[in-house]
Specification:
This protein has about 170 residues and is mostly helical. It is about 70% helix and about 0% strand. The longest helix has about 35 residues, at about 95-130.
């Protein structure tokens, strides 16, 4: 590499392989999603078997996690090329229509992620904090719900960034 094509004055001591980095970050994304799922399962098991209070994890507590999971599926199943494809001009409006459809579906996916996070935070506030259940074993069920949704959001974000990387390690979107 010539001196004029460098960004920094020093070179990296290791060579970053694009495929290895991409697969490792996908594994990290999967681990984050598994952590979020385990947090929800842990809160449910604790609520059913060991919880001594009157507050329990119900289906209402699972709705934000389901919304976050659906948002993650919608966001990461879109073809990213359709979001930035430009029309060739003329009377062909099919490309523009497909681009707007992809953007609307992307908006719905990110909205589902936001609903999931905000819903879990709302459940934490309404079900636990306002009613005065702030002791450690009981409040942990609410914080695990919020942590699960944050974990799914981070997993989705990492997977989105990794899937938009081009072969030359630059972001295409």
């Amino acid at each position: 590499m010539s001196e004029t094509n460098r960004l920094f004055k020093f070179s990296l001591p290791f060579h970053v392989n694009h495929h290895v980095l991409r697969s490792q970050t996908m594994y990290v994304s999967g681990v984050l999603y598994a952590l979020g799922l385990w947090l929800m399962i842990d809160a449910s098991i604790f609520s059913r078997n060991r919880n001594a209070s009157v507050v329990h994890v119900t289906f209402v507590d699972w709705i934000p996690f389901i919304c976050s999971t659906l948002g993650m599926v919608v966001v990461n199943s879109l073809d990213k090329v359709q979001l930035v494809s430009a029309s060739t001009g003329g009377f062909d409006t099919g490309a523009i229509s497909l681009q707007w459809q992809a953007r609307i579906v992307l908006f719905i996916g990110f909205s589902l992620l936001a609903v999931g996070f905000n819903g879990s935070f709302l459940i934490l506030v309404l079900k636990f904090l306002i009613k005065g259940y702030t002791e450690n074993p009981t409040i942990r069920m609410g914080t695990e719900n919020v942590g699960a949704n944050v974990s799914v959001m981070l997993s989705c974000t990492i997977l989105w960034i990794v899937s938009t990387l081009e072969e030359d390690n630059s972001l295409s979107l």
